Give the backbone structure.
Amino acid sequence: MHEPTQQNHLDKVSYNDKVTRYFLWATLVWGFVGMLVGIIIASELANWRVNLGIPEITFGRLRPLHTNAVIFGFACNAFFTAAYYSTQRLVKARLYSDVLSWIHFWGWQAIIVSAALTLPFGITTAKEYAELEWPIDIAITLIWVVFAVNYVGTLLVRREKHIYVSIWFYLASIVTVAALHIVNSAEIPVSFLKSYSLYSGAQDALIQWWYGHNAVAFVLTTPFLGMMYYFIPKAVGRPVYSYRLSIVHFWSLIFIYIWAGPHHLHYTALPQWAQSLGMVFSVVLWMPSWGGMINGLLTLRGAWDRVRQDPVLKFLVAGVTFYGMSTFEGPLMAIKSVNAISHYTDWTIGHVHSGALGWVGFISFGCLYWMVPKLYRTKLHSVSWATTHFWIATIGIVFYIVSMWISGITQALMLQAVTTDGKLLYPDFVETVAAIEPYYYMRLLGGLLYFSGIVLGIVNFWKTMRSAPAPQDETVLVPARFKPSKLTDDLAHATESVADSGTLIDRLHHVLESKPVVLTVLSLAAIGVGSVIEIVPTLFIRDNVPLIATVKPYTPLELEGRDLYIREGCYNCHSQMVRPFKDEYLRYGAPSRPGESVYDHPFQWGSKRTGPDLARIGSKYPDLWHYRHMRNPRDISSKSIMPIFPWLLENKLDGSHTAAKLQALKKVGVPYQQEDIDSASVHRDRQALEIAKRLNEQGGVSLTVADKEITALIAYLQRLGTDTKVSVP
Amino acid sequence: MSDKLPIQDKPYDGIQEDNNPLPGWWKTILYACTVFAIAYMVVVHTDFLVHSRSDMQRFEHEIAAMRFRQDSIRALKPPFTYAELTKLRTEQGRLSEGKGLFTDKCVACHAAGGAGNIGPNLTDNFWLHGGRIDSVALTILNGVSAKGMPTWGNMLSDEQIKSLAIYVKSLHGTNPANAKPAQGVLDTL
């Protein structure tokens, strides 16, 4: 039975290519900015002097700008460009609303600009890839809703009855990102640019990495799989390898991906059952990921020779290959015994960059090299430049990931080396840093190569645009709106004379493809299962986070110090989480327990140890040690690569919100009493004076230090881990 | 091989889809990973097949074994005796090894030459935790956690601690510039 898919009459539709071209340039601008910042921070790791003592460009403040600019500036704009370009053509309809399209465009760019205007100034929530403060979080939500309405609206006015696999991936990405962002960004405002996470400690950690890992999944993976499904068959002119594989890997991928977040928290104070779920789902995720790679690569079957001439295919094919590599490496690193080595080291940094530079970057540029000539109705300025871009970038990636493998594994093995009589072979953390410094230069070289490729690409696009005729929207003749058929009829037709279960799946799914809203709801259900099973028990079952009686809330001064720790981005290089390993026990003390961070809104467990763990730094050194160390770490540890923080010794502590901070934390469950809040400033100043006196006694520091930021930071650092410190007999 | 999709009526913007079956190796690995996942949860989180130990229990076991080994070694031979350390003071290389360690680990707090800064002066006659060479070695070994002196025994070998104590004692009476005022009690042993 064939439905009457078209009547004789055709409508004229013009695609909104103008907004697509704007998104395209936004992709390039933010790609340039984000990667330039990446190069700056890579240089700062290679040589601490590079920040020139300027607070705003110190590693801890700039690294979040790098990740935000690349993820939300470069990758998201690439997704918007490709999704708007391909979807209009796949459903033969103009974007639902020009107004919404432009609100989406300018709103999103304003969000990235606001990131650049807040993060370097230390305005951050300290949750990785979700650092933006609450007003910007609200703006993200609103603009994302505009995008979703515009996108789904376009599907509702579509001229093709069925939606193609690219669109399934785009839809799943849109709803899941919305859910992740809203849940993870729940926070209680203190002032216009300061808030605390609603969750604390182990619960905050779980939700953060549920978000963080699935930002990788639904911002950096599924949109790009959608792009792959459109641009590879377009560029190579061959049929997609397997429709059934696309169904199976789409649903298995989104269902399984969402569970894998806890692999970022192996051996931490997260309950072990959650860690185990994170690990095993990561392992099962391997093949669903590779389903996408197979469908991408095998679409080129019989046309591999085309890769030799066409830079578009070079980028796309290499991108898919890097995808295959990182989605093998990911499950491998999620296995706990491997993770014991890789976690907190540069190996993770290498892994994320083989995904970001290799997969996201190459798919983006493959698509851009395909779209630019179409959107400007001319030929690419230079194909050989594009090919050069590809090769420089590829060599850059190899330098990057190989150096990070060597550095990560070297450092982990040095840190874990314990002699048979129970001593650390490399007791000083800094010795292991000195050993890997050459690889920081090698990584910088890799980044510079990749960046030069991008610059070459941008110049190529610019010249192409300049030589093009005045751009205009593509106008096409499209079939009249299809006549909706009844779902029951479609289902009856699908189940008619079915040969086997595989065919049944294909046919039922084909029916689903005519119902984009139902497909979206089902995607949300697929990601809902793992989310609920992992998050709900951790939030609501007390046994998962047993309280420790001696653990008390921070004093007002310590809390201010903690906010400075967050402002300076210390968590970017220091963890506060001792894992149950012999070497960590010898180096840092007893393993961290979930009850120790119940008052930490947000948690500060960290994800990378460029410097040592700080969970038990409290009272390990005298106050003067910290004072001198913050002024210049080399005065204490000659080989240290930590930046200098002299401004902490000069800036007066801004205590105007101290009471409001306690009040806000009380609302989210920290047991401050009303008298604590009332006496917050008095208590804060008294404790600061005590520290100032000690600094004065220990090293003749002037008592004027009492109202400086450094005393607050010292108070916080000296508190860490002391609530559970067992006195040594 | 590739059977043409029976249900796709027309290409999407020119894109066709074949419907090749799922690769056999792909399905096999997917099933194997799933079996591994279930087996892992059963083995690690139940006592159904094997007695399982949590990460924390495994850790505690490891540390207990390490401590037992260290205690056994210590029981056979106390780490530092006055007699041995005094004899070692003239041994070739001890002083230079101790000086190297001191420069590396100690000057941050005790300043070059032991003049004292964050930590006390090590060159005078006054000591907080005993000035006899075996007391100095024991202080290095155990640290003074209340004052911020690390437990070097976790990081240095007994031999290294001996050399360090020998070097520290060699600083006695050197009267360095900018020496920190005396702390503790007179102990000239």
Residues 16-477 of chain A form a domain with the Cytochrome C Oxidase; Chain A fold (CATH 1.20.210.10). Chain A has a mean pLDDT of 94.
